[in-house]
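Attaching the record inline, Q. Sequence:
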Amino acid sequence: QLMSDVASAGGFYIRQYTRENQALVRVFDLSNQISEGERVYLDQHFPEEKVLRFLDHFLDTDLEEVIEGDVPYPAMMTGVVIRNSHHVIQSVLVLLGISGEKASELEKAQAGDGLHFPEGLRLTNKKAMESNLRLVLHIRDYHDEIRKENQDIQGRLEDIEEESTRNRRLLERNETMTSVLSLMESDGEFDQIANRILEISSRHLQLTESALLRLDGTKNSVEMIAEFAESEGCKLRFVSRERLGYPFFNGRPYTISSDSEIPEEFQQYMDLCDFQAVVFYPVRINEELRMYLQFGTSREHRWEQEELKFLNDIRKIFQTILSKRIT
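Structure, as predicted:
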């Protein structure tokens, strides 16, 4: 609206061309209260194909901000480029003017071609156009400063939101860990405590299944000491080690995300358990491998470092509880 008012007061016209798919396309006339006669007159003296050829002079690699158009005097045409923060052209303002200094001579010449000035046609002069150009550049730069300030404010707001999200997640994690730690001093049965810890930690990370697994005395099958399942329908079905393999029972930790490339025996295990992502942590007592913690989800997931740190802390808590009870 401001540009329209400036054009109306300054006695000239403005067209805006915006980049779409690498081409500059005419969006609209910014000139305020322009008549149909004025539009027809301008389209005759500043035909679209001529203006588009003129716009070809503006390049992303060129730092020129203003280019004068080659049109017969007293017609005047000037392009003002608007770039983004990466100096890529976003749009061009085309200032169109008819000099009133020779308007009568121009009208007489045009009358022979059957053309006449429409009523209310804006007339200006070269000096006034130069002044108008400086004003348009000032307004453009002012809006550019406002845009940059808004971007900075938006960036700061996003930083504040991210910090707020991190603090909220940290608070939730601390509350979860407090609930888990309170179970360390419980006198209840171990399987009940273990089930509760798995439920609290799994719900916190929105996991679908988790379990504490132990090899039996023969080391041919795996016993499930404790388990959490998001629903009854997705409870883990553990079968003999000979059939399932349990490839992770080797003392090493494993982190498998949805996009991880894994050996075939791990893939078979995940398919059987309907896992998209899973973490396996060994549980040692007095440096001896006794059990494995398994945290999995049937949803696509990529593990984050904070999640892995949290689950490793859960592993340490299990080791502490087991060490106290065994010794």
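The radius of gyration is 37 Å. The mean pLDDT is 83.

More tomorrow.
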